Automatic annotation (TrEMBL):
The lineage of its organism: Bacteria, Pseudomonadati, Pseudomonadota, Betaproteobacteria, Burkholderiales. InterPro entries: AtuA-like_ferredoxin_dom (IPR056362). It comes from the Bacteria. Residues 10-108 form the AtuA-like ferredoxin-fold domain. This is AtuA-like ferredoxin-fold domain-containing protein. PANTHER family: PTHR47708, SI:CH73-132F6.5. Pfam families: AtuA_ferredoxin.
Length: 123
């Protein structure tokens, strides 16, 4: 007989939604928890270091995290992550609008008891 796991690993989008903005060569990603009980998991696991690792291929010079507890949100600022920005980049997504989607696939460990709060894929 196997014992059920006390945690499961899911992509971040099941806990939160995101939105990306930009200014020059700086990307700004907001992450907003779907439910209040999920916000502590964002605080614990969506750190400046974990985001820097997730975007290592973009080589940001700095990642800052700002907490907005009343909104159950985080604001992540990635410096030098847009290949020079809209006017300088040959990148197809020079605004970096798709960067939130890349972050939303970050693996997050969730206590099994919180599974009913997670979003499910559309069927």
């Amino acid at each position: 007989m196997t014992t059920p796991s006390t945690h499961l690993t899911v992509p971040l989008w099941q806990l939160a939604h995101g939105r990306t903005g930009d200014k020059g060569n700086r990307s700004n990603i907001s992450v907003i928890a779907w439910e209040p009980a999920l916000y502590p998991l964002l605080l614990e696991q969506v750190t400046a270091d974990s985001v820097a690792r997730r975007f290592s291929h973009r080589q940001p010079s700095r990642v800052q995290r700002f907490e907005l507890p009343q909104l159950r949100a985080l604001n992540l600022v990635l410096d030098d992550a847009l290949d020079g920005g809209v006017n300088d980049s040959l990148n197809l997504d020079s605004h970096g609008k798709a960067l939130s989607y890349w972050l939303m696939d970050l693996p997050i460990s969730v206590p099994a008891a919180l599974q009913p709060l997670l979003r499910r894929p559309a069927k």
